[in-house]
Write a structure and sequence with these properties.
The complex is a heterotrimer of chains A (385), B (305) and C (393).
Chain A: H1 3-30, H2 34-53, H3 56-66, H4 68-85, H5 90-116, H6 123-140, H7 145-169, H8 173-192, E1 202-203, E2 208-209, E3 212-213, E4 218-220, E5 223-225, H9 228-251, H10 253-263, H11 265-270, H12 275-301, E6 303-304, H13 311-324, H14 329-345, H15 353-367
Antiparallel strand pairs in A: 1-6, 2-3, 4-5
Helix pairs in contact in A: 1-4, 4-9, 5-9, 5-12, 5-13, 5-14, 6-7, 6-12, 7-8, 7-12, 9-10, 9-12, 10-12, 13-14
Chain B: H1 2-32, H2 39-60, H3 66-96, H4 101-122, E1 130-131, E2 140-143, E3 146-149, H5 150-172, H6 174-184, H7 186-191, H8 196-222, E4 224-225, H9 229-244, H10 249-269, H11 277-291
Antiparallel strand pairs in B: 1-4, 2-3
Helix pairs in contact in B: 1-5, 1-6, 1-8, 1-9, 1-10, 2-3, 2-4, 2-8, 2-9, 3-8, 5-6, 5-8, 6-8, 9-10, 10-11
Chain C: H1 3-25, E1 34-41, H2 48-67, E2 74-81, H3 86-98, E3 102-107, H4 111-124, E4 128-130, H5 137-140, E5 147-149, H6 154-167, E6 172-178, H7 181-196, E7 200-207, H8 215-224, E8 228-232, H9 235-247, E9 253-256, H10 263-269, H11 271-274, E10 278-282, H12 292-301, H13 312-329, H14 333-341, E11 346-348, E12 351-353, E13 366-372, E14 375-378
Parallel strand pairs in C: 1-2, 1-3, 3-4, 4-5, 6-7, 6-8, 8-9
Antiparallel strand pairs in C: 10-13, 11-12, 13-14
The chains are: A mainly alpha (385), B mainly alpha (305), C alpha/beta (393).
Amino acid sequence: MNRVAVFFSGLPGCILPALLLLAWSSFFLTAEDQISVFLSLISLAACVIVAVRMRWGNVLRDSIAAHERLWDACLIAIMLALLVLFREDHYSLFLLGTIMAYATAVMGLNVQLGYAGVLNFSCASFFGVGGYTAAMLMAGTGLPPLLTLPLGGAIAALTGCVLLLPVLRTSGHYAALVTMAFALLFRVFLDVSEWFGGPQGIPVAPLTIAGLDFSRGISWGDTEFSFYLKYDLLLLLVLCLAYSLTRRLERSWIGLALDAVRSDEVASACFGINIQRWKITAFTLGNFLSGLAGALYAMMLAYISPANFTFADSLLFLSILLLGGIGNIQGVLVATVLVVIIPEKFQVIQEYRYLIYSALVLLMIVFRPVGLLPRKPRVYTGNPA
Amino acid sequence: MDLLLQYCINGLMLGMMYALVAVGFTLFFGVLDVIVFSHGDTVMIGSFAGLATYWWLHAFYPALALGWVALLVLMAAAVTVAFLGVIVADTMIVPLRKGPALNTLLATMMLGTVLRESIRLFFPDGSNPQTFPALLPGWSWSSGNLTLRFDNLVLFCGGVLIIFLIHMIINRTRLGMAIRAVAQDEEAARIMGVNYRFVVLATFALGSVVAAFAGVMNGLYYSEINFGVGLLLGAIGFSSAVIGGLGNIYGAILGGFIFALLQTLGAVAVPFASAYKDVFAFGAVIVLMAWRPTGLIAELSSQRV
Amino acid sequence: MNPSIFRKSLLVCCFALFLAFSGAGLQPAEAKTTVKVGYIGPLTGGNSSIGLGARNAAELAIMERNKNPGGEYAFELVSLDDECKPNIGVQSATKMAADKSIFGAVTHYCSAVALGTVDVYHRFGLPVIIYGAVHPDITYAHNYPEVLRIIGTLINQNQVASKFMLSQGYKRFAVIHDTTDYGKSHKEFFTKYITEGGAKVLAEFGVTADQQDFTVELTKIKSLNPEVIWFAGLYPQGVRIRAQMEKLGINAQFQGVSGLKSDAFITGIGPELAEGCLSFLEGSPLEKLPKGEEFMKAYTARDFKNAPDAMAPFSYVAMSQIMDAVEKVGPDRKKIAQTLRAIKGEDTLIGKVSYDDHGQNSEPYVSKYVVQDGKWLVWEDSEYASGKRNLKK
């Protein structure tokens, strides 16, 4: 097929649903009063139910699989369109930024848990290590701010090395305990250490790249752009990089090795796969991604405190992964959007939001333990799909 | 010297509370191979159930002797929590165990949040700390820096008694034999005619009763309860059970006392930074896990390939 | 290409758009003269009792204003939760400050939160009056024209507190503080003033906000045998520390800071153990105020679910001042901030209010409180001051 034909065959499967998604999400983000929030959620649910009833899900999925590039381009286009649409609305842009930062961090968790099967109950802590690294480096050193981003990731990965030995030696619930203990320890440590600002938290200096101050808005002619827009663009770039990295990783022989390690350690050791090496790689890479996302998120937030990086937040990251379907990074994107936005939009349930949120996740685990979009098993048909 | 003794007494009380929570974790792990993380919040529910019972008794039978009140509070807490434990096991834990272990862990963590938030929102004035009534006589004896209290002694002895009773139930009764059989090999136990569902639910009831006792003990010891104690208590109970070696009751008890020792040691030994004691305790747990990856008293297991 | 897929997709698209627009149509039209004003405070979590009381008071001020036929504007309250956590607070503040339809706000009980959010208000230019956070840096670390504070700083509070304690003849203090800036800066000023007065601080302990067991710290304190255990932090921990002091047989005077003065402290610990505990708080108690009884009557008449608690009068006055400013200069953030700054010597529910060049209310009055028979009483009215009862020595 030539390019034009590919484009047109992708039209019904990709572009129309993408347009639909754009229309819906722009409406949902602007919805202020509770009636329209409810209505938009109900309309989404209705669409999903109709789609499932008419068996369009499979059609959509096949179309996505066949036109992956196009679909990815559509997603990016949607995001850009939303950013332009909300150029003045600080709060919506902030939410979009949060979604992208969380999604990037969960990509890291996905490499650990989804591919290599390494349990990590302290994802938010590594996210926090990245954030605090950014804050300390920007305040205390003259390093170029752009360099603090990868450094945030690198230091998160280094911190993870402290846990390597116990993580490698333990498995199952014992491994869960090690990372859980780390998450609790990290929080208490930040709470009591004077150097890191204590429970109070510390301000994070805004990012500047080549004289471009990220904490100021842009005005272009008559239109004003929120300062969050710059962060959102950078976060979009980081998310795209993380996405394509994990995607490529999954499809490479490394992904195959990681899958083997996860499914059966003994068997894969018999085939000559070095289990320890791949576990270390996955754990470190995952922490790097979480730390990177955390550094950028901290800069966007401009103010971080230990309360951002608690054990409960690690659980939030895990439930995003579980909700989306462990191992499926497209699922991660969908789940992040739902988990971040819905509680924000339901101000009516203010006091009850934790209760309702945890009850929903609970029901989800009991009734659909595989998540919204479960990862498909690898298929070997000769066509790379 | 008396200072040291006082630290020991504090540590022992703390350790007893942790041990009782850890026993629940390890019992559930034994029969079902799952971690029920909401167990810490079950403890909290136990103390609130006790408090509600006390209010009720105080309103309708103000003349009742304190001893009877204490007994009724304990019984009511035990029954409520056992009921809760059985329902949770039957509707959630057993159906979930076919899936990956992570799902159960996450689901029970969410359940813990649900319990915690329910108390905060629906218990009268639940977001504020509540006074727990002194149901035991507050006789005390002091010498220098040392204060011995009668109620603490009763609580500690009660804890020992509970542990002894569990030991007897597990080792000397038919139910205990069934529990051990299911823990060892579920299928073989079923084939031998063990009523699997009954054993699982009985184990949950048993573990929850211990949690109720820990909850009431927590209330009596601190004279104050609040909705938030469950999360940290759960994390500490889980840590204790794991350091001891999951599935082993004596390991859990040992783990509980070790954790209390670590916390007390962290606060006493580093005088300039007592706030770092939890950092110290959890750090020590991580090191312990690196040294003994399956706990101090490891389960006997072989890997089938 | 498959035409049926195309048709189906189109159908769904139309369906969704229809739903979306039918939803949009339901948004109510706004009345012309409605002006939105904001409130941020801890509505959930451990400090919600104070935050809900203050929110209700702000709402009360608005209800009374709207009932009044005079005035050009109708006011509408937008209230957000900061959970007493800086990160959540910054988010809520950003949300409120970025909303251009909001023209002023009454904010924050917790100093940790306020310290983080003042920059946000400045960046977006939203005029706020802080009703309950007492850390000095909130107003004095910068000179933001938008940020005002109606409550006094903890410097005044600790001056009064240390003078009082010294006058009672106390010389040996043990200090417990939470590790937030609120606790730390209380500790800084209190220890400074009492050591200047010749008293001794025997030990200092930092504790975290969710610590449950204080027996180790208290055992150490017991061996030092202080006359006073001074706690800088909020009441949930105050309850635990006071209860565990009793368990360890420590017979020292228990003294707190403004964060202890909440009715929830007494219900949490019970009247017997609370008896004789001390606290210090900016402003006079309601019953002492000339219009206090009136306020209380109006508050109870509204059937709010929560008691007003300590900060309600401050929030009430702050909200009234913002509405006055809107009536005076119209909905314009800059002008409102200027008008508020210019307030000098205004007679209000809480006494005279004047803002200095940092937007700090410069006429603070600190009251001393003691628990007597399960109630917080002003020291001067208590049986402790008249000598009928004695503090612990």
